Task: structure prediction
Amino acid sequence: MRIETKAIHVGEEPDFRAGSYGDVTSPIHLSSTFATLDIDRPTGGYDYSRSGNPTRNALEQKLAAIENADHGLAFSSGLAAESTVCLSLVKPGENIVAFNDLYGGTRRLFDQILAGDFSIGIRYVDARDPENIKKVIDSKTKLVYLESPTNPLLKMADIKSISDIAHERDIPVAVDNTFASPYFQNPLDLDADIVIHSTTKYINGHSDSIGGAVMVNRDDLYSRFKFEQNAIGAILSPFDSFLVMRGIRTLGVRMRQHAENAMKIAEFLETRNEVKKVIYPGLTSHPQHDLAGKQMKGFGGMLSFELEAKAEKIEKFLKTLKVFSLAESLGGVESLIEIPARMTHKGVPSSERKSLGISDSLIRMSAGIENVQDLIEDLENAFLTL
Ligand SMILES: *Cc1c(COP(=O)(O)O)cnc(C)c1O
Result:
């Protein structure tokens, strides 16, 4: 089955057993506990909803299917998923080798909790060159942690090459695949070991649920994460599981439209004098356009651009937009725009922002699936204020 079909059917096959109704969508099982007639023999395989719940289980099957994975786990947030993976694999005194361009919340988790409170070493490298990973790996490295494309500069890591390097030393590779979505990139097929998602973004796609996911093929990693997730308690609620499943059914059509709109907007922005630079993996001007073409099936819905204007003008530009909302987050059907230096990345010290390439005039856009002409006209109107 292809991804569009799996996104609709897996985990939600109609149940024709006696006492069932043949629902074509999963019911929401809100029960926190499940009664049994026999001790040690749970009625339907479930005993307590933190340890397992039928609605969450249906979602977890769907999550695994869309990443071509054997196993999926649904978490209460993307960060809950990340915390569980890292705490399962890395102990005090050991280290994680990570891309230096990561989601801000991941940086906070790594720097302040893992490094700060748990004495776990974090070695940041520019993972655009796989050799940089090779240089810092040592016998205490227990995890290689990547994001590709990154936020907000859409830098890419060569997942296959880096996985080959890490596997020579038996180190698992985790990829935060939130930006690409499973529709456009499947890290396990590129030999990574662990896929992490903030389902809050494209997977749910409707900006109405916070959640996370982990997908793996390896049985040992699955058992470890499942145990740790239950022990920590980082699970997704039945109602949110239902919402995320509902979102996944349209992943294919949404992603195609996100990418088509992003490409048209990127091309439009490249024609404007007010724009210094457009960053979108689908443009041939992107320095890693070839790698994107190799490891992704499409270029996604995120783009960034730099405006040639003073701070007040940029603020005016953003406030003039009517169809775009000025907001953090991404991946929903509605178009969002933000200024990383003052919003999503204000926690990153300004010297580090500069060295990464996040300037004060950089704008990040999550292209929604509205009619693209309305989006372009909205931008044209805002350009009049510059
Ligand atoms: C949003 C996001 C996260 C964190 O997910 P939450 O669901 O907000 O906890 C992690 N990684 C990336 C790339 C994100 O965009």
